[in-house]
Fold this protein.
Amino acid sequence: MSLALHDPDLVGDVDPEAEDRDEFHMEELLKEWTDEPPIRHDVYPESDDEENADGSGRFDTHIRRGDGFLYHKQSFFSGVAFKEAVVDYALRTGCNIKQYRYDSDKIGFICVGCDGKKGGAKCEWKVYAAILKSDNMWKIRKFVDTHSCIPNGECEMFKVPHIARLFVDKIRDSPEFYMPAKIEEIIMEQWKISVTRNQCQSARKKALQWIEKEYDDQFARLRDYAAEIVESNKDSRVEVECLTSAEGKDMFNRFYVCFDSLRKTWKESCRPLIGIDGCFLKNKVKGQLLVALGRDANNRIYPIAWGVAKVENTENWVWFIKLLKEDFGLRDGEGFIMISENWVWSLM
């Protein structure tokens, strides 16, 4: 039986290539990944959303893409990865690229910047990629890297789905900031490509539909996530609590996680003190994040357990603390102290 956040009626279509595109972006992130240096407990890490010097508090609008360069025999693990590379090329050069061929095993793009209009010579730029039976990788089989046109801010391949994919992560994080006018402004500032306000409005709507679908798919697999935690982290504890709707469907109520490695670390090296607190979950998923923290002798922080509930009330806190007592063997609380905001609970 699937688990749902609510019972939505999704409007609009979804991204048919989302799975392949996510795999492509994951590969790109792995290539760029570097281990971060440890952060001292008394040093604040830098934020990605720092205020400008004028105090305007504008969000960071940098959107990371590929380098935008293409070359003959360049390899890609899928057709989607090739198309993303062509999009990066169009963003880098500002050329008016258009797709002229798309089959399951071959894709081609041409430049239509001049297209022979007003007596101008037709642009010769062309790129063609295919996957052969003798080769499991997509490769650029033909590449004519010669432009006879001058970029004029138009790009036929830069349609609503491309704009939506470009800004979906930004809209997910800050939906109120990335409105159609702001999206139009950023595209012109960063890539010198002209798009209409209606295109940006449709792209924002499509991105929100994709995000809605992602949330529903993720909540439907919450039990799979719980099972995977237990499978990959032996002796950890995960609790998924649901309510049954009038239609007989399972609806999310509460969620609890305690990793065994953190539990052992707290028992062996941390002070007999637990800090608990809750904070709001924003965006589409509303509710409260409940967290229990421990500190060792060097003041290093350990998130020993956490949970998600619809509201922060006595019933949910009692449920959370009862699970804590069971997992950490607090029994009647003798010798332990629990701290939360402005009050201290002595469990002695």
Observations:
- Residues 3-31+55-215 form one domain.
